[in-house]
Amino acid sequence: MKAVVMSIGSELLGGFLTDTNATFLAQDMAAAGIELVGVMQVGDDQSRIVQTLERATLDAELVVITGGVGPTEDDLTRESIAAFAGEDVVVDPDQLEEVRRFFAARGIGMPSRNEKQAWMIPSAEALPNPVGTAPGWFVRHNDRVIVSMPGVPREMIRMWRDQVLPRLGDRIGSTAIVSTTIKTIGIGESAAEDMVTEIIHRGNPVVATYAKNDGVHIRITASDEDITTAERLVRETEKEILDIFGPHAYGTLDTSLGAAILQHCRSIGAAITVREAGSAGRITNLLAEEADLAGWFAGSTVNQYVDSARAMGIDPDADEAPATLARLLSSPAGTGSPGPIIAIVTRVGEISDGERRSGDIAFCLNLNGTTSERAHHVEANPSEIRRRTSLWASEFLHVTLAKHAGTEHAWF
Q1: pTM of the prediction?
Q2: Residue range of the domain that includes 327
Q3: Are the CB atoms for 53 and 81 separated by under 8 Å?
């Protein structure tokens, strides 16, 4: 089955939003055995949306539209689909009641303009939206399927997986496609690809690497007429890749980096304490967001680098100051916690070249009196220095704790 994704919104064309919906759909369609042949972005102009829809239905049997289903005048997706299909829109009483119920649950009345979100046409089937006001449309027209979903990613993803994919089951075909993603940290994309080159060249499963904000993701996708065979191919390839990456592999697509770190703390049986100086509390935020593992985060202190150094009697400009401060901050004195203590120190220097500054980063992990240390020097703008601090500190923590706990692949 061939598909085209249409992303609606002038804010996309103006560069004010990144089209993450198209990225998600491309990956999920590939995993479902749907061939994506095009991605189109269209502004809030009905005639252009209709023209693009006409072109898309010439190229593919499935057109998936995201965005333009809000209640305002510039939300024109429903009008455009109706014009394309030559049908008139009417307010559907059942959908109108759903929209009203959404507002009532929040203790507010429904604005009259939101009636637009209850519009339907004869060829459309409503797609429920449990997390928003706008239902989707599943339209069957001249042997083509046109799907319209909200542009809000959390609404779109749930609607796509819960409502759209089940309705497409008989059209996708008999080939079974199975996929998984391994998340890695601490190895760049080029190096990661080199490590799995031989596996990539096999062809099935298809293995590809993607650089992301939380490391490098390795996607494994196998296809076969027999789903058992496809699952076996993915499972065997996953094991190979895990053996190659060792503790640098930290989870699957649903695993957050913070959760992977705290999982090791749970395996050790001791909560971790964080002390940050100059890193803007990025590791604290990373771990504090993991509500399901909150018991394994003992708390943190976050201070400015210069203030922390002076409080410890250290010259903040001394060459060894970041490493010395990290050692002192990782001392268990006064924590009241027997668990691991990680100190993260970031010193951002004076401007050296344009906006670039020198950055000195030091980590020290105290684990039952045994310390592990690492240091980095980098030149970048302050925000980039702190971003790299977060990634390097996360990798340092994950790898060191995994080796200590003997739980390198606890999430697999």
Answers
A1: 0.70
A2: 257-405
A3: yes
